[in-house]
Amino acid sequence: MFTFLKNIFFKKKSSDFFFIHIPKTAGTSFINILDACVNENEIFPCQLWNEINQSIVNNKSQYKLIRGHFGGGSYKLLSSENPHRLTILRHPQSLSISTFHFIKREKNTAVHELVNENEMDLKAFLEEAQTAHKINNRMVRHLSFDLGQDPEAQELFLSSQSIKVVNNWIKTPKTIDNSKRLLRAKKALDDCSWFGIQEKFDESMQLFAYTFKRPPIGKSPLLNAHISKEIIEDYCKDLINKQNKYDLQLYDYAQIKFDQNYQSMLNNLQKLPNAISKTTDELIDIHYQQHRNCITDSVEFDFGDDFLGSGWHRRELTQPENTFFRWTSNHHAFIDFWLEADNYILTIRIINSVSSEHLNNLDLQINNTSIPYEYDQNEGVVRIISTTIQRSYIKNNLLRIQFKHPVSLQHKQVFNGNDNRYLGIAINWIKLKPC
What we know:
By secondary structure, the chain is an alpha+beta fold. The protein folds into 2 domains: 2-267, Rossmann fold (3-Layer(aba) Sandwich), CATH 3.40.50.300; 293-434, Jelly Rolls, CATH 2.60.120. The protein contains 17 helices and 18 strands. It has helices at 2-9, 27-34, 54-58, 75-78, 92-105, 112-117, 122-127, 129-132, 138-144, 160-166, 178-190, 201-211, 234-243, 245-269, 280-290, 356-360, 411-415; strands at residues 17-20, 65-68, 84-89, 194-197, 299-302, 308-310, 316-317, 324-327, 332-338, 344-353, 363-366, 369-370, 374-375, 383-389, 398-404, 409-410, 422-423, 425-434. The strands form 4 sheets. Strands 5, 7, 8, 10, 13, 14 and 18 form a 7-stranded antiparallel beta sheet that branches. A 5-stranded antiparallel beta sheet has the order 6-9-15-11-12, with no helix packed on it. The protein has a 4-stranded parallel beta sheet with strand order 2-1-3-4. A hairpin with a 7-residue loop joins strand 13 (374-375) and strand 14 (383-389). It is globular, with a radius of gyration of 23 Å.
């Protein structure tokens, strides 16, 4: 518990984030949340080593968020300061099975052709030396990876541009086995400002919101997740365990630490007034509001900016306008603005909806109170909402805009394709000006 508190309060860290993205650990879902913490132009543009070039590295000081498959020690090379390190772990059995299915369906993975040409099932995949090593202690290797000390901890796929950069960093390493890597992986976990557990994703997001004083995230959809209903025979489980002796130890270590961190959060939240009658998310919301943000007197917001809120999918670009928008991911999404107490004119541009019914029945609320509004037109899915916000609606400088609409619908049901996300309405921008 002390290490957790020390990482939050005592270590001198910048406001930057370095997400150690271990593949197939719900990283895609978390990145959707993490990206909201920074402006779009402050996100490191690469997620893989082969995308790195010297120009990007030379300008690394402009980036506040790095979230790629770079390994635990790479923050020392890619970050300009001492960022908050973050990661998510997953049980080695489900991680291994998910990795097998990912390799089987993704053409750009290293042994995809071998797996499919030989029509490998999980058992054959685990028995074949050329493929089994793909699941060997992946979390330990990823967290302990360091180009200077242990570049052999994971495979490096490089381009001609990235080779020129990486060659300057690789040193003659000492021989490091997985037992030593485990110690380094535990140390990397101890140094994280926050880490999550995939099997406890919602609790992990509560801990993330609490740690960084953000509003509650609520129940999050797991994106890019392969849901397998196959029954795994004990023989395969034994093979996975043999390949993941050190990952299993790391996972057990992480489980204990996570439970301690989560309980520490709950203990602190229970000290808030009237805590006994409130849910954990409600207490996280109070904790966030006690650490109020910078107060402004007007807003011109689009989703290229960082924001505080919940219930949104990833940033997307409009065409041909080349501006950002986000879909709501559930029927009670909200976004927060911290404002001077005043009367405001609110305008909101909606650029899409899963149905006109969602727009016709939209319940627009300010701090849980429904307010009247007008559309600039009553047809189509591109509309602008206009309304006036009285200063009495603003509570302690917080103006929370809530978008409540009928149940969300699946993207592929409305627009065809293979996108499994559930959507409501798509917002392009929000403006608030004093009356």
